[in-house]
Fold this protein.
Amino acid sequence: MLVLFLLPLAVAVGYDRPAGKAETLRLEASVEAMGSTFSIAVYGEDRAKMEAAVDAAFEEARRLDHMLSNYKPESELSEVNREAASRAIEVTPELFDLLSACVGYSRESEGAFDITVGPLMKVWGFYKGTGRLPHRAEVRSAVDRVGYRNILLDPVKRTVRFARSGVELDPGGIGKGYAVDRMAAVLKQYGIGTGLVSASGSSMYAIGAPPGEKGWRVNIRDPKDDRKSVAEVYLKDESMSTSGNYEKFFRAEGKIFSHIMDPRTGWPAQGVLSVSVVAPRTLDSEAWTKPLFVNGPAWAKRHKPRTLRAFFCEDKPEQTCAWLQ
């Protein structure tokens, strides 16, 4: 379902338009895709161009849903999950490049990011569910089927094959970020110079800055109280993604177990409440929130790419939230 609002900027934010200058408009719209709500806000003076740009960006989100969904049997990713253990699957250049990037993130993060986390998401009940506490034997069995080294990529033939049966790709740690980047690229192709693309508020990319502002103002929420924020960020031609234990979790045995897994142990990561990453691309900001969450701030200081900024909220007796120095 598409929801669209188009307002004169003078009404929306009290902007004073110089005499003779065309009226500046702000358009806001949202649509459901990839299990998320994608929202777009753009500024401009040509209503028809703005609407065409937003429609095209949402169509790009739907296209990627058909490529990357692990819920749709007909998607390209689902075909890989079904068949790659028995034969090499030729995939589109786009999917091949994305899987190659995922393997790269896994290597750089020492395995803390892993797109083969699918079996763990299922055994912990986070695939189409709210979570459950599995038996340790179930976790061990799932861990045996997890590992990015099981993804065998042939760049010449552009094929994907799994090294063993039971491997399953889960796009949850990368798909939204990739989609946001692609949607922002579509907006730029249509001549949009000021806009914000957001996927459920957790991954976003800012094009330019709103009139009279230094950037798009975004609040980082308090992981323990969604009515409060712990930091304010101004984004301009860059992205920010946040991963928090409050997104999907359940309580058992006096603990909170979130959907953010350490693929190497098979257990939800502990010690961090949320991580926000600012990066040039949303693909990078979303992918890196997971290993920084899993490995923690001490590891991040040594291994985080220099192009990223990271904001941590740690799980201590007194909540500690700060930018990584």
User: Anything to note?
Assistant: The helical segments are 9-13, 47-68, 76-83, 93-108, 118-123, 136-143, 175-189, 282-303. The chain has three domains: 1-68+173-208, 76-119+137-169, 222-325.
